[in-house]
Design a protein that fits this description.
The protein is α+β, with helices and mostly antiparallel strands. It contains eleven helices and 13 strands. It is elongated. The termini are far apart. The structure holds adenosine-5'-triphosphate and magnesium ion (MG). Adenosine-5'-triphosphate binds next to helix 9 and helix 11. Magnesium ion is lined by residues 318, 321-322, 386.
């Protein structure tokens, strides 16, 4: 009698385990091919909801640069309720999740809950959280998922919890995979851009030299002709316009020449903050005229890189001018300098990051891939060489440059340079 009962229980246990293996297997299969972080989060949230039934699911991911977990995906809660929710990477919640590598069920672990900092408790309460799930990959906590329900009626069973932890483990790996994939894709994109620019630069150098000499001749001839017209002659205007056009060609040619590395690069110890201040000095008057306020956030007073101050000034000036040109009717230009690099967190303090942010209209996504291309411009008087030149100079300094923008939310140019 008893042995039959034991056998039945054994079979049930076996079936439950098989079903669980099936769920994990399917979960894995559904995640493995998704490389888009947004789609991945949606897929994970949907599966969690189907399997365990919470009405509130909030996924937090680590923002490595700022060292905080911030919400990146949510179900069942308004975006506005999440506006300034953050959990610090070194905060008590994150530390507990990392050390214990298990879910925190608030109802069952009151003493852990009491141990959390009061802002953390506050947030968990406001978000109706019942369970905090860690996303762990390579011994690092890379994300947190909060589960709960509006009425507070949702609960997990022990069996659920075990399965949830297994799935969270898979989800952590899937996120890491997606992040690596994106990083690799960005690297390749930067590499292609560098190659494209190098080829364009070589071609440009040849053309620029060819244009320069005849252009000088044309300019002096036009000037000579101009003097032959009496002051009141209406044709004088035409000739003056011609001179303007020649100057425009001259600017383009000069831009092309600075794209190429004809000039010898002899880097010396240079204080980036000093160079930024010199560049700001040149744009301050224009900013005032356009009612643009300038904000500075410098993490330190001096940051020394190996570089060419003249060329770096050209980079910052180009970026600041782009920002100002995007805000003809006023706005805010924010220059931030810090020392961190998201891809190399351990060597973070050996990089400086300069951000030049504006509150202009932003760049449409379809243009974002082309803005570094020589001659790509949306401005009537633009040469479209500004960013190509910045790219070329920054790369010569073994740094990186990127431009981030969301239409309607302004644009941020980010330059990273290795520190001495
Ligand atoms: N801060 C910004 N806000 C909005 N759009 C920008 C910004 N920076 C660059 N762009 C876009 O990228 C394009 C290319 O910029 P780039 O600096 O290379 O050339 P340009 O500014 O058009 O010409 P030039 O630099 O010769 O004046 C710009 O025409 C503009 O469309
Ligand atoms: Mg420009």
């Amino acid at each position: 009698m008893r042995s039959r009962m034991l056998r039945r229980e054994g079979i049930q246990l076996f079936r439950r385990r098989a079903a669980r293996r099936q769920i994990i297997h399917e979960f894995n299969r559904s995640l493995i091919l998704i490389s888009d972080p947004e789609a991945l989060q949606a897929s994970i949230a949907t599966r969690i909801r189907e399997l365990f039934g919470p009405d509130i699911i909030i996924i937090f991911q680590l923002d490595r640069e700022r060292g905080v977990f911030s919400p990146t995906y949510s179900v069942g809660i308004e975006r506005s309720a999440l506006a300034d929710v953050r959990f610090h990477q070194r905060g008590r919640l994150a530390r507990w999740l990392l050390v214990n590598e298990s879910c925190l069920v608030i109802e069952r672990a009151r003493q852990v809950y009491e141990f959390l900092s009061s802002p953390e408790r506050d947030w968990l309460g406001r978000l109706n959280t019942s369970v905090c799930v860690p996303l762990i990959s390579l011994n690092r906590l890379t994300g947190i998922i909060l589960l709960g329900s509006r009425g507070g009626h949702w609960e997990v069973t022990d069996g659920d919890l075990e399965l949830l932890e297994l799935l969270a483990h898979q989800a952590g790996l899937a996120f890491e995979n997606a992040a690596l994939y994106q990083q690799q894709r960005d690297r390749l994109r930067r590499l292609h851009r560098a190659e494209r620019l190098a080829a364009a630069g070589q071609l440009a150098a040849g053309v620029a030299h060819e244009i320069r000499n005849p252009l000088t001749a044309i300019r002096s001839t036009i000037q000579y002709i101009l003097h032959r017209f009496p002051r009141e002659d209406p044709n004088r205007e035409l000739v003056i316009e011609l001179l303007g056009e020649v100057d425009r060609i001259d600017r383009t040619v000069n831009g092309l020449l600075s794209l190429t590395r004809s000039r010898r690069f002899e880097p010396v110890e240079t204080d980036v903050i000093g160079v930024i201040e010199q560049s700001l000095l040149l744009v301050e008057a224009q900013a005032r005229r356009q009612a643009v306020t300038i904000d500075r956030h410098y993490e330190r007073d001096h940051l020394v890189v190996m570089g060419d101050a003249h060329q770096l000034k050209q980079v910052f000036l180009n970026l600041m001018l782009n920002a100002l040109q995007a805000m003809p009717d006023g706005g805010r230009l924010t220059i931030s300098v810090s020392t961190r690099h998201p891809e190399y967190p351990l060597r973070g303090d050996r990089w400086t990051k300069i951000e030049i942010a504006d509150t202009g209209p932003g760049i449409p996504p379809e243009n974002l891939d082309r803005i570094f291309d020589p001659f790509f411009t949306t401005k009537r008087d633009g040469t479209g060489l500004g960013l190509s030149i910045c790219h070329s100079i920054v790369h010569q300094h073994e740094g990186e440059i990127e431009v981030r923008s969301q239409p309607g939310q302004g644009t941020t140019a980010v330059v990273r340079l290795p520190l001495v």
